[in-house]
Amino acid sequence: IQDAIARVLNYQSSTGSFGLWGPGSGDLWLDSYVSDFLTRARELGYEVPELAMMQSLDNLQNALTYDIDLKSQGSEVAYALYVLARNRRASVSDLRYYAENQIDNFTNTMSRAQLGASLALYGDQPGAERAFGSAFALAKATSNASVWRSDYGSALRDGAAMLALAAETKPEISSVKDMIAYMAALRKNVRWTSTQDEAWMLLAARALASSNETISLEVNGESHAGAFAKRVDGAELDLGPVTVVNKGSEPIEALVTTVASPSQPLPAGGNGFMIDRKYYSLDGSEVNVSQVRQNERFVVVLTVSEYSNWPSRVLVTDLLPAGFELDNPKIVGSAELPNFSWLGQTEYAHSEYRDDRFVAAFNRSGNENRQFSFAYVVRAVTPGVYAHPAASVEDMYRPEFSARTATGRMEVSAE
Fold this sequence. Notes:
The chain is about 35% helix and about 25% strand. α8 (about 155-170) runs parallel beside α10 (about 195-205). It has eleven helices and 17 strands. A hairpin with a 3-residue loop joins β11 and β12 (about 355-365). It has helices at about 1-10, 30-45, 50-65, 70-85, 90-100, 110-120, 125-140, 155-170, 175-190, 195-205, 235-240; strands at about 215-220, 220-225, 245, 270, 275-280, 285, 290-295, 295-305, 310-320, 325-330, 350-355, 355-365, 370-380, 385-390, 390-395, 400-405, 410-415. The radius of gyration is 25 Å and the shape is globular. It is α+β, with helices and mostly antiparallel strands.
């Protein structure tokens, strides 16, 4: 957590605002989210520099002084108000005005829940109950359509945030048990989750952890109080199963997660995207890299096709075969590769050098060409026969939309 605090503060600008890939400004929801993280970390005793914290809160307060359209920016306003309330810097009269007179203009579940949680922080329990009731009613009436949202959200994320905030509120909001049932049903219908979904589900689980204290189990013949979790590898499981018996009077839910590598190479496939990967020699000739020689350099060209026309935050990851390493840790264009004039220059938000992969992020407005290409350079370094992992593309906050190339094998021979 302390390392995470240091990393996010590296992305803070002099105005107190934050950026996704470096210091930035203009995204009030992101500013509120990071400030929320810093607030929660400080409450738990982690070291958050006072100046950085004050600058982040001043930035939120300053942003709320502008004339903001609630129908289009309600999620940003509600989050900023919540973080300020948690730091005792919100105006309770503003909170009551928004919750009592403007709540219909807050068009997502999380925003209304944040208004409720903010009122509870100032001791207005009846107002909090009404706001959470409005949030829950909206959640049940809202479809789970995959539409563009500037607040990185989804119906699952909003529901998890509502439940987390309601369970954190003391005294607890009266509809928490109904919210748990709603979220359990919603989660079962969602196959793919974003980092936002996962973060808020974790916060909800933590807020509800006290209810696990009454669980009574028998694990492999021994008594166990409270929730039980264990990670078991395949070899250990072969030697003996894990037996869990519920000794309590109330039913409980067991969740088993399996992690494994595919037994056969995966074919290309996807939903909402298509991605193609080709290799070229430096003179511009396309090559097959199933067999290459040590120290040869190649230009990797990735072409992504989008089938949607909405704005999106797209992440492309190309996992390298173990015998390759990145020769140039950035996206390259025709200026650096004279034999690739057809590539042009691609606008990207971020590119990242890692030992085992190349990562690039793109902010897509929805108005550009639905297909874009970019390139980077690799070198064959270590002789051997290797798995050739897939390259993948995903919509970071609608993870059901993704695609991958086929996997395979390749060989690097010594010079």
